[in-house]
Amino acid sequence: MILVADGDLELDGPVGEHVPELAGKPAAAVTLRQLLSHTSGLESGPDPGATMRALVAGSVLIQRPGLAFSYSNAGFVLVGRLIEAATGMTWWQAVESILLRPLGIEPAFVVAPRPATRPVATGHAVGAGGRIRPVSQNITLAEAPAGAIAASASDLVTLGSLHLGDQPLLPARYAAMMRELVVDAFGLADGWGLGLALFDGWAGHDGTGDGTWCQLRIDPATGTIAALTSNSSTGAGLWHDLVTELCRRGIPVPSGSLLDVPELELPAPPGFAGTYRNGETRYSIDDQMRLSVDGELQATITFHEGLTFSMRDTQTGQQMYAGRCLADPETARIDRIQINGRLAARI
Questions:
Q1: Three-state secondary structure along 326-342?
Q2: Terminal CA-to-CA distance of the chain, rounded, Å?
Q3: Which of 84, 122, 147, 287 has the fewest C-beta atoms under 10 angstroms from its C-beta?
Q4: What's the CATH class of domain 105-248?
Q5: Residue 168 belongs to what H/E stretch?
Q6: Residue 178: exposed, middle, or buried by beta-carbon count in 10 A (0-12, 13-18, 19+)?
Q7: CATH class (in words) of the domain with range 2-87
């Protein structure tokens, strides 16, 4: 949005005008507004590739741009390439010089062309029975714009401060545009703006990596910012506990927690079982309500009202409310599912 405020990029112009790798391809018509609101129609995540340009050249649409919300890391890789084209810098250079250093944040990245000068915490996976093991991040250089910034909770608070009043780096009206509702975002938040999730009047974003978890909440009306970073796959539980304590102390930070599972359980709807696809990712739900991703069993599911369902992880036992089935409005047949904000169509 800083580049939009400076006049270097337009929210509603086709990105293909700036990104030559998209020449003649359907994804060339996607706009920056659609990319930031995850309504671009791009697949969830690109397959690892040698370069960012190669990933962008292989961009795949799973639905018509502007049709519906589907969280897309591939979309943010494209945003990263768009930033490079607009600035003449690499994505890392642009993030450092345009965003981080002007805010007084010492840059750190999970993956970068040169070694980090700041220490980066190792992520940890917590398995069944509480067994803990360190894990390495598997994000590649080509995928960096989708989640390679390494930040502390204090760094997140500093980033959130861009939304408190008129800031030199980002004028207030552009910050406000980021917080305007664009689309429903079931499975991740109440809604989505431009690059930000919306939670009951607050804005922010949750993020996960390999054995890491982070949360950010911003309330411009009161000037309140809350942030948490965790180097554990169980960070969602820690955030839930922190928000509970903050609310007890009179700071009503919205959790957005997927751990708030409805008590009412319902029988499985007819026609739910099947295989669904988002790009190269395949989700399969069998008659025993077991969910597999790319052939590997991930969770068992329980249905609730409105064709929604919760998922209990087969490794950790953690149950999260982040799935729903969607039916064709004409036939009432279930033809799509949405899991953690990602849409997948029946095949």
A1: EECCCCCCEEEEEECCE
A2: 37
A3: 287
A4: alpha beta
A5: none
A6: buried
A7: mainly alpha
Domain map of the chain by residue range?
2-87, 105-248, 274-346
DSSP E strands in 144-223: the ranges are 183-184, 191-192, 197-199, 202-209, 212-219
Query: Which residues make Cβ contacts (< 8 Å) with residue 263, sequence separation at least 6?
Result: none
Rounded distance between C-alpha atoms, residue 178 and residue 170, angstroms: 11
Higher pLDDT, 242 or 318: 242
- Please count the residues of the chain: 347
CA 159 to chain CA centroid, Å, is 17
What residues contact 282, with CB distance under 8 A and at least 6 apart?
275, 276, 293, 294, 295, 344, 347
Strands 183-184 and 274-278: unpaired
Amino acid at 312: R
This prediction has a pTM of: 0.94
CB 215 within 8 A of CB 189: no
What tokens appear for 29 in the block?
């018509």
Residue 36 carries which side chain, given as an amino acid letter?
L
Q: pLDDT tens-digit profile of 56-86?
A: 999 999 999 999 999 999 999 999 999 999 9
Q: Which residues contact 226 (CB under 8 A, 6 or more apart)?
A: 215, 216, 217, 242, 243, 246, 251, 253
